[in-house]
């Protein structure tokens, strides 16, 4: 006999295991909050912008051909900025306890589409170090590109600065807790239905019918203790009469 589950049965299961679902969700949110606030290292972000132009001395006389030439150079510059030739000098100047390969993972170089402005973004656990790395990388690149490519077409447009109260960009405790709430809720619902599926006890006449594969021809209503007591009292009174 094929077993079917109605929508009403689903709601009954959710209502029956509501405490379990709530508990699972609360535990997931609490665990996520504890990990986010106490165990994950805050990471700060700092960015600087450089401008790639044809003539460093006058950036107001560009033509379309100059801009196109500069745009073609930007992809090459993006690679050079994160190369050991640049980052090793940044590490040396700042006396950082890291390697060019490790520092590469902290730096993101990106330019907007059809833009000559290149953004150098740095992530670090120390906001001051992030600012120093961003500014030093831009300065070193500006100086070294003259030697590497024999051109002087890079200007620092906006240096990296640190605010009065810098806030980390990650982790985001509220986002993590929101995700944990969804996962905890789904887990709780899953456990509730699993427990209901594994529960093979007979609860009502439908369970008996499905178990024996036989039709029900009669039911015995449950009798409470109070009803039994009332019946005994009535029988006793009749006998006295």
Automatic annotation (TrEMBL):
Keyword Transmembrane: yes
Protein name: Capsular biosynthesis protein
Pfam families according to UniProt: GNVR, Wzz
Record's signal peptide: none
InterPro entries named among the record's database cross-references: Bact_polysacc_biosynth/exp, GNVR, LPS_length_determ_N
Protein localization: Cell membrane
Similarity field: Belongs to the CpsC/CapA family.
Keyword Transit peptide among UniProt keywords: no
């Amino acid at each position: 006999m094929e077993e079917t589950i109605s929508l009403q049965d689903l709601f009954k299961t959710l209502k029956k295991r509501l405490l379990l679902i709530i508990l699972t969700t609360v535990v997931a949110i609490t665990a996520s909050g504890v990990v986010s606030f106490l165990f994950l290292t805050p990471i700060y972000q700092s960015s600087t912008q450089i401008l790639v132009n044809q003539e460093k001395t006058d950036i107001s006389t560009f033509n379309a051909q100059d801009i196109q030439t500069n745009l073609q150079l930007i992809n090459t510059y993006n690679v050079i900025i994160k190369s050991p030739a640049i980052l090793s000098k940044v590490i040396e100047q700042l006396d950082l306890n890291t390697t060019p390969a490790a520092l590469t993972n902290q730096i993101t170089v990106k330019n907007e589409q059809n833009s000559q402005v290149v953004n150098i973004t740095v992530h670090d656990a120390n906001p001051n170090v992030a600012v120093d790395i961003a500014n030093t990388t831009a300065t070193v690149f500006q100086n070294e590109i003259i030697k590497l490519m024999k051109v002087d077409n890079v200007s620092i447009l906006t240096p990296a600065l640190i605010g009065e109260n810098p806030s980390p960009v990650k982790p985001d405790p509220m986002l993590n807790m929101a995700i944990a709430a969804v996962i905890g809720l789904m887990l709780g619902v899953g456990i509730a239905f699993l427990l209901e599926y594994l529960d093979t006890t007979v609860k009502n006449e439908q369970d008996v019918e499905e178990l024996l594969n036989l039709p029900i021809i009669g039911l015995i209503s449950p009798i409470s203790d109070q009803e039994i007591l009332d019946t005994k009292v009535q029988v006793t009174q009749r006998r006295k009469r």
